Each structure stands twice: as C-alpha cells, then as structure tokens.
What we know:
53% helix; 0% strand
Amino acid sequence: MSNSNHSCICIWEDLENCEDCNIRGRLHCHLDKKYSIIFGVPFFIAFIPTFVGLILLSFPLNLISTLVWIGYIVFFFLVWEPPILCAHCPFYAEGETKILHCSINYGFLKTAKFKPGPANLWEKIQFLIGANLIFIIPAIFLILEEMWYYLGVLAIGVIAWYIVIQFKICTDCVNFSCILNRVPKEIRDEFLKKNQVMYEAWKASGYKFDE
C-alpha cells in the first residue's frame, strides 16, 4: 500500500493484490463507474421532472421552493450526511485528499473524519429522515399548487430509485453502517476481519462476529 493514512484499509491496495481475496467480486470495494450510473440514472429520473415542476409553480413560490430544495440538498450532502453515514465508509478513509473518491458521491468535499466503527441507531434514523426530506420538500410545494402530474413522477421516480439501489447497489456496498445495506453477514464479517482498524472498532461497539 502506498499511503500510511489508510494502510489499514484493503480497498486502497492495488487490484493485483486482491487475487487471493475470498470475497473478491462480492463487494463494491474499488471505484467502479457502473455503480455511479446505476445509482444516478433513477435518481435523476425523479430529480429533473421535479425541478421542472418547481420552476412552473407560480411566482414567488417557484423561486422559494427551488432555492429551499437546492439549498437543502447541498446542506444534506456536504454537512448532515458525511458525519452520520459517509464517515463510516472505508472510501472515506483515503487520507491524502479532501475529495471523496467513491462511486456514489464522487467528487464531493470530505467534511468529516473517518469513523471505522458502525453508525449508531440515532445516526441511522437521522440518515433516513435526511434522505427522505430530499423528496418530501419538493412534494410539499407541488401539493400546495396541485401539481399532481409532477408529484406522481416524483413518487414513481423515488420508488424506482429505492428498488434499483436495493437490488443493484446495497447488496455490494462496503458502507455496512447504512440502514439500507443488504450485504450478507458472512461477507461483511470477512471484510471487517481483513481490516483490523474496522474489525476492532466494530467489535468494541458490541457487534458479534460469526466464528
């Protein structure tokens, strides 16, 4: 490994060092644009029509709703989400840069410090609330002016997004702290055992490993 700041996390090793890994191919543990596409396309199917719907609201509600929504999205991804979710992810352990290099939030500014242990219940609840507010906020404004078509597109887009990520992203994701994570326990345990700093932090939290 080339960097001591994250030398305890195996995802920063060169791919050729993964040849003998027992869980190779079972986790999204290296940057992969495929995940960016799978995650992003359904999200923007909901985002773009919703943005159009807000713009079409009467003035000044269209301006207020758009600024509130965009402002909240920036706040959530750069201020609220990082310490409660992203900081628990191995991708956040890259020590040389202030920019996140994961397939989901690639290019975002890292505004928290890496937390090798699991998220607690309050952090998970906060994430659920914060993530769903991204869709609830515009829904409120669309309901106020009875923009039912755009509200319907938003609802369909959100449902489709959740279904897609649950079956195509959450089954492979190395952020085991996420409440949506669906990686099997045996694979999660194997990954944590390969990474001592995370293994010790999870064990200290009371997490039980299968022997």
